[in-house]
Amino acid sequence: MNDLCADIGYRSINHIGEQLCGDHVDVVESDENSTVIVLADGLGSGVKASILSTLTSKIISTMMAAGLSLEECVETIAATLPVCSVRGVAYSTFTIIHIRNNEYAELIQYDNPQVIMFRDNKAYDYPKKEMNIGGKTIYKSTIRLRENDVFIAMSDGCPHAGIGTAYNFGWKIEDITDFMEVMVMANYTAKTLSTILVDEVNKLYGEKPGDDATACVVRIRKRVPMNMLFGPPRNPDDANRMMSLFFSKRGKHIVCGGTTSSIAAKWLKKPLVASLDYDPGSDVPPTATIEGVDLVTEGVITVNKVVEYARDYISENKDYAKWNFKKDGASQICSLLFEEATDINFYVGRAVNPAHQNPDLPINFNIKMNLVEELSDTLKKMGKRIKVSYF
User: Fold this and answer.
1) What is the b/e burial string over 306-339, where b = at least 16 CB atoms within 10 angstroms of the residue's CB?
2) 125 and 8 housed in the same domain
3) pTM above threshold 0.85
4) Strand 385-390 to strand 343-348: parallel, antiparallel, or no bridges (unpaired)?
5) 317 conformational bin, left if phi > 0, alpha if psi -120 to 50, beta if neither
6) Do 129 and 80 sit in the same domain of this protein?
7) 80 and 184 housed in the same domain
8) Both 242 and 133 in a single domain?
9) Same domain for 335 and 310?
10) Can you give the pLDDT of all 391 residues of the chain as single tens digits?
11) Could you give the CA distance from residue 261 to residue 272 in angstroms, rounded to a whole number?
């Protein structure tokens, strides 16, 4: 088994005037190293399109993750979807990216724009095999994966952007490929790449989309472990065991909290040095340094800011520019956890901080534990492997 994994991110915008998106993306893990990603585009827009695409993506992803054949999936879709009384047809186009054991990608494409693939930061012309299933022409490809391979699937709202305004015939696949090639070189995460693409599509529509538009990006990368220490142990006698376990783990080490960083500095026998590089206008407390620790920050206030950014990241990702280009403690944690890490180990101390017992402060023990739980949940939704150990 290799040490590759799939970083998956997607973003959608709705047809102007519609509350529901007619596109839908579903991601199902069939096991620890295999994932089925389905992007479905329902006929038309609005409620009907949303129902069609949701049904399609749910049925296909669930059936394929269970090991059923493509033929069975397509036949089930044809038999399940209702028929439009106006057009006399009822279907949802779809793109399937099936990652098998993090070794192969199986692409299955029906009537959606062609999946763009980048290898070694260049557009890669992968082989396609034409199939006919139930009267539908479907293209299938099997590709052996390499590190940094990038797949970009999209609904037809993306290449239709700019028709009659910026472009006579829309934003052609070749133009989208050229635009994204530069972004892929920058080594952005899948979520950020999908956000960049859909934001550009929205601009070409004059921020009044004439169709639902969705981009789903899969980026193949190596697993990167990360370790985060937050709070001192409930029993002070457990401090050495907690530090020993934390620092013995492979990967970078983040220490959050004043008391926690003092314990870490004492265990490492290194001085704790406060950083002088601080923006007085920032609402995040300053960082510090300890030799042997990659990042030292304040505790609850900083982690609360990280949780805010994490909530946004898994939804619309509008705050990306706020944390990606800043150097405060919360922004640095976001860069490490959201962009760099794939496997994150949390070491959480259950000690009650006496400073937090002030009734004038909006901080208590439960808030601290809730922050850990919410951050863990949002990171799992980003596709990270999470392990939390309490002391």
Assistant:
1) bbbbbebbbeebebbeebeebebbbbbbbbbbbb
2) yes
3) yes
4) parallel
5) left
6) yes
7) yes
8) no
9) yes
10) 578 999 999 999 999 999 999 999 999 988 878 899 999 998 888 888 898 899 899 999 999 988 888 888 888 887 777 666 665 555 789 999 999 999 999 999 999 999 999 999 999 999 999 998 877 889 999 999 999 999 999 999 999 987 756 555 678 999 999 999 999 999 899 999 999 999 999 999 999 998 999 999 999 999 999 999 999 999 999 999 999 999 999 999 999 999 999 999 999 999 999 887 777 678 899 999 999 999 999 999 999 999 999 999 998 888 888 898 888 999 999 999 999 999 999 999 998 766 555 555 555 557 888 999 999 999 999 999 999 999 9
11) 7
Q: What residue type is 283 in one-letter code?
A: D
Which structural domain, as residue segments, surrounds residue 51? 4-222
For residue 214, the Cα-to-chain-centroid distance in whole angstroms is 14
Q: How far apart are CA 349 and CA 234, in angstroms?
A: 6
- At which of 164, 189, 222 does a domain end? 222
Q: What is the CA radius of gyration of the chain?
A: 24
